[in-house]
Amino acid sequence: MAIVGTGYVADLYMRSRDLHPDIEVVGAFDIREGRLAAFCRHWGLRPFASLAEVLDALPGEGIVLNLTNPDAHYAVTRASLEAGRHVYSEKPLAMDLAQAQDLVNLARSRGRLLGGAPCSYLSEAAQTLAAATRAGVCGPVRLVYAELDDGYIPQAPHQKWLSESGAPWPYENEMRTGCTLEHAGYVLSWLVAMFGSIHSITAFSAATIDKGLEGGCTVPDMSIGILKFRAGQVVRLTCSIVAPHDHRLLMTGDKGTLEVRDTWDNSAKVRFRRRFVMRRRLMEAPLPRRIRLAEGPARRRARRRGSASMDFLLGAEEMFRFLHEGDTNRCDDRLALHVTEAALHLQNAGEASETYMMQTACDPLPALGWAQKLR
């Protein structure tokens, strides 16, 4: 694997390298020479002088890890696919659906793999929740509340947020890209992996706060979406950089509720509250039962970094596993494209959105080998 783009998020991927000793990072490239030098010096990597040099250095089954700014995702991924390389891209695949679909079509025509972040749906927490829904722990899932609020970010000391190799958190780029496009995928990927295709979305998005950027910024800093899945589930998804930090996911079914308190924690606990009647009252159990898998992943757990405890290389690992073992690729272009389409609509819905009918589709994903059964 080779890294293209050595900004803040690249260090998060490199921190996960110790969890995946079979993955070799052959080097990195960035158009900013100083940033590239600092990153490669910190991690002991070879600096490449150009994207072309990266593509020449990668073996035939190597993967380009596209960690550039969102505006550059399309061009870098397209060049890599045209050179016959597999690509794993940070979110989103592209900044509009037509470009994302073009990349998928190109990857398929060249027989190359194209995967996209986020990959936390491959985590222990997400796989446990999926196993619980398949087993009917809470009964058929009817309604899901998902929160992705990150606090009042413009007032946070983000100027002090530095990666391990010294890259500043890209505040302006994050604000101008939009928090929904940056973050909604963390929940969308979980839900699509579990339930399959989204049928329709009714959404609202708006700019509610001054982000302190020169020239202003009217990119929405909050969104609320109602998603109807083809399998019948209804989801309310909220995303903002305004409301207090909250990354909870709550599923309501006929028998009770399943809850994950922090979807940015790969090993977060999955809890079930049974619903019952006591005298004349309908209640959920005050003491939840923890749901566990019969076995868990063999690797060590990811360490916490800032507000997240995530293994950023799970997606690349899944692509490598498929390349070497075949079977099912759980990090394929259908999921990345469907999640990109949904996030783009949620971000860009505006204040007078009509119901949007999804154009792409994705089947539910099979469980990982170690996540087949509950205790």
TrEMBL record:
Residues 127-259 form the GFO/IDH/MocA-like oxidoreductase domain. It comes from Albidovulum sediminicola. Keywords: Oxidoreductase. Residues 2-114 form the Gfo/Idh/MocA-like oxidoreductase N-terminal domain. Belongs to the Gfo/Idh/MocA family. Pfam families: GFO_IDH_MocA (PF01408), GFO_IDH_MocA_C3 (PF22725). The lineage of its organism: Bacteria, Pseudomonadati, Pseudomonadota, Alphaproteobacteria, Rhodobacterales. PANTHER family: CONSERVED EXPRESSED OXIDOREDUCTASE (EUROFUNG), CONSERVED EXPRESSED OXIDOREDUCTASE (EUROFUNG)-RELATED. This is Gfo/Idh/MocA family oxidoreductase. InterPro entries: Gfo/Idh/MocA-like_OxRdtase_N (IPR000683), Gfo/Idh/MocA_oxidoreduct (IPR051317), GFO_IDH_MocA-like_dom (IPR055170), NAD(P)-bd_dom_sf (IPR036291).
